[in-house]
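REQUEST FORM: STRUCTURE PREDICTION
Request ID: SP-0412
Submitted by: Lab K.M.
Chain count: 1
Length (residues): 198
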Amino acid sequence: MDDEQSQRTNLRAAFVACFLLCGSSARADEVATEPAPKPRKLSPVAAVGVWAAAQLVPSPLLVIGKQHVGGGLRWQLTPILYSFGIAERPLRAFLVSPIVRHSGSVELHVSPEWACCAPSEQSSWLVRAGLRLYLPLLEHGEKLSWSLGAAYYRAAGANGGSADLGIFTFNGVLGLNVTVSPWLTRREVITALTIRVF
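STATUS: Completed
RESULT:
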């Protein structure tokens, strides 16, 4: 008698377990059939507005010259970039995502900057234009990448060449770039804390 009651109890428990299992798989099927929400897309006008606002954020500079230390600000535009680290649309202009740049690329850049303190009452503003190579070091450049570049600068009272070396992290958003310009009086070495979203 006890065996019969035990079997009935086991049968009821098995029935309840099957019912719960079937019910939970049905709910999983219901959840899976719901369409996924569509990602939000920016209109072209809004995308250009966001890009333009991001370009206004300057990189702070530490300016080191002969017997002089000062500060400054640098901006950067990328009129054209070719990425050899991605397959889809390797040629970009102006709007360049960090993964495209730091997975491996060559860019033409224009960098206006204000670097304190030009000699003999000259303007501290200058503009650089040049080429820069980016190469990934870790995780396709997402964790760590580096750059090597050369540029021609135009400043009040002086024009000449410069070279730079940089290291970047956090998907290329944050970096440190050292620019050496031997003939740029009182601004021979400029270190930039680069902040770039695009």
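NOTES: The chain has two domains: 1-36, 47-195.
Reviewed by: T.R.
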